[in-house]
Specification:
With 377 residues, the chain is α+β, with helices and mostly antiparallel strands. The chain folds into two domains: 199 residues, Thrombin, subunit H (Beta Barrel), CATH 2.40.10; 129 residues. Helix content is 42%, strand content 19%. The protein has twelve helices and 13 strands. The protein is elongated and about 70 Å long. The termini are far apart.
Length: 377
């Protein structure tokens, strides 16, 4: 009899433990239990969030957070920073990237939800909105589809790649995007766990040559993935990524003389938008614009772009000849020389320097508008 009672008690305790494990947590406990699985993602062009999903430090974030980055680092709440060294899964169309980091440390992975999500469920978000670190918010599931969870927990730029959790502290989705706050109120979306869960154990593709991050990703993509990257770059008007995905290969692709300036513009805008960190882009831009001038095509755009490249890269080898050519175009010459004077004096405020580079970039946009419109529909 005692053995039966002991068995029953053990059974009851086991059931209670299971129920407790599956029960909703208090918000404070839920945050404390999961915040160490959240990452603060930094690139040279922006900030975002990430979620650790494996003990080895494998984490998931949004593709758009790292799409055109040259460097990617991940920082835990403790302040420890790690370099991203590879990826397991990249999907621009679903806006998901599963990445890996360099560390021998064992990390605390977040628990994945394996049960259906329902409209009306309470949800919690942890991310880094506007650069504020490891922020905790709550809301509910508003609407569901196969590829998206609409939710009302507050989120902002920087939250992308962060965790959307249910009341049990399980990950149900990765925060992806928000409607423009000036046009809509608190309409946010997350990518469901089911979209990427099967890819967590994929073999890692390591960046062993330490290439700029987007160059590394593009060097490893299939033709199908290349089309997805190009589609993403088109939709986002990300000219730098578009250039990296589609630039002609030396000795293999024939380029029309009329298109030299187009490829130069893509490379130069990629250089400008990427925080001028990838010097190969400005070198490519100069090469294309020199070819354009030699072919006597798009002369004003090419001359202006070349002197702009000189200003940006401090390579003055052809500065005199290019500036002499630009004098034939008074407006472009005036925009450039006004900017150059401010920079050479070295006494301007940060605000004045920002205005200088804004004016230079806006003029480049005006000169290249037609050529871009003719290629990018």
């Amino acid at each position: 009899m005692r053995a039966v009672i002991k068995t029953l008690l053990l059974f009851v305790v086991t059931i209670m433990m299971c129920l407790q494990a599956n029960a909703a947590q208090t918000p404070t406990n839920l945050y404390n239990e999961n915040v160490d699985s959240i990452l603060f993602i930094e690139t040279e062009t922006g900030l975002g969030s990430g979620v650790i999903i494996n003990e080895d430090g494998t984490f998931v974030t949004c593709f758009h957070v790292i799409a055109n980055a040259d460097t990617v680092t991940a920082k835990t709440k403790s302040g420890t920073k790690y370099k991203v060294n590879g990826f397991k899964y990249i999907n621009p169309q679903k806006d998901i990237a599963i990445l890996t980091i360099t560390s021998k440390k064992s990390f605390k992975p977040i628990k994945l939800c394996t049960t259906p999500v329902n409209v009306g469920e309470t949800v919690y978000a942890i991310g880094n909105p506007q650069g504020l670190k490891f922020v905790f918010t709550d809301g509910m599931v508003n609407q569901l589809s196969k590829d998206a969870i609409q939710f009302s927990a507050p989120a902002s730029p920087g939250s992308s790649g962060g965790a959307l959790l249910n009341s049990k502290g399980q990950l149900i989705g990765i925060i992806s995007f928000q409607y423009n706050p000036s046009k809509a109120q608190n309409i946010n979306f997350a990518v469901p766990v089911s979209v990427f869960s099967k890819s967590i154990e994929n073999k890692t593709k390591l960046n062993s040559k330490k290439l700029p991050w987007s160059d590394f990703m593009i060097s490893r993509m299939t033709e199908t993935q290349k089309k997805a990257y190009m589609s993403y770059a088109h939709s986002q008007k990300d000219l730098g990524l578009l250039y990296k995905c589609s630039k002609p290969k030396d000795g293999k692709d024939i380029v029309s003389e009329d298109d030299y300036a187009y490829w130069g513009v893509l490379a130069l805008f990629g250089y400008l938008s990427n925080g001028t960190s990838n010097s190969s882009l400005v070198k490519d831009a100069k090469s294309w614009f020199n070819k354009s001038i030699e072919s006597k095509k798009n002369m004003e755009l090419s001359a202006y772009s070349l002197v702009l490249c000189t200003l940006l890269s401090n390579d003055k080898s052809d500065a005199t000849a290019n500036l002499a050519l630009l004098k034939k175009y008074p407006k472009s010459y005036r925009v450039y020389t006004n900017a150059a004077k401010t920079i050479e004096k070295g006494k301007g405020s940060d605000e004045s320097y920002q205005k200088v580079f804004r004016d230079l970039t806006l003029h480049l946009m005006s000169l290249s508008e037609k050529i871009l419109d003719s290629h990018i529909k």
